[in-house]
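Worked example 2:
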Amino acid sequence: MISCVDLGIPVLWKHRNSLVKLIRPNSVGIELGVYHGICARYILDNASVSELHLVDIWTKPGTVVQHRWDSRFSNTKKLMKSEIENGVVKIHRMDTKDAAQLFKNDYFDWIHGDSGVEYAHISGNLVSYWPKLKREGYFVIRGFTPSNPVNGVHIAIDELRESSGDVDIVGLTADTEFSVSIVLRKR
């Protein structure tokens, strides 16, 4: 297995918000893991997209704080109100892997994954959404930890690189050691 940490991946962006520069005008994108909708709002305010799909389950099974998740969902809808009304934003309140079935292959110009760093979750999203990404499209994954090569994100990316053969690692953001985003491009 080739570890991402051994590849000498360059830090190309100071913060993940800088990644909006990668978004081509009138592109179709998806955010996996929306939480409060702040990142999605930033994308809408700083990039031209024709379609933005927001996928989040907005729940945490086994907790007694569902009202907090419902509040986050309501706030996200308020933040995106006009874009929802004009059809630019489409919200999918469901598990990210289940939502992948809604889209045909080669559908998205870019994907922003911010829905967890556990191996099973990241691997599931990469396997489910990599075929949905167009050639030359970007897949940004938050939660890459350069100092931890056994992190679930590292392992899932290494497996994708070995199985698909069409993955380029473009670079990293320099947010913090615990919140670095890695940018992949599909060949």
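The chain has one domain: 4-186. Residues 1-5 have pLDDT under 50 and may be disordered.
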